[in-house]
């Protein structure tokens, strides 16, 4: 089975990555300015390698899951370090994120119930002409 072209390439232009991931080149430059990715430079041109692409995948996944750039940076800083530390940090951050989302879900369920009750009362009042 053949790999997608992007997985078999070794070098990427910023426009290639932006197009592949559906983000702006400005977003990629922002992640670079935060030290999350470090493309090589040839003059003014950024040259991204597979490692940068892999890190970009992790950054975007982390953002989609609601992690802060600081959390993502902490995780990526361990990317080439001790794998046990990386897994421990990941488990800790994911546990905290799950707890926060579960709290938000409880709050949303309460809010939805309250809004349904308010709507019900309003419709009853409208029906009785009060």
From TrEMBL:
Gene3D superfamilies: 1.10.1660.10. Residues 11-78 form the HTH merR-type domain. InterPro entries: DNA-bd_dom_put_sf, MerR-type_HTH_dom, MerR_fam, Tscrpt_reg_MerR_DNA-bd. Residues 91-125 form a coiled coil. Keywords: Coiled coil, DNA-binding, Transcription, Transcription regulation. This is MerR family transcriptional regulator. The lineage of its organism: Bacteria, Pseudomonadati, Pseudomonadota, Alphaproteobacteria, Hyphomicrobiales.
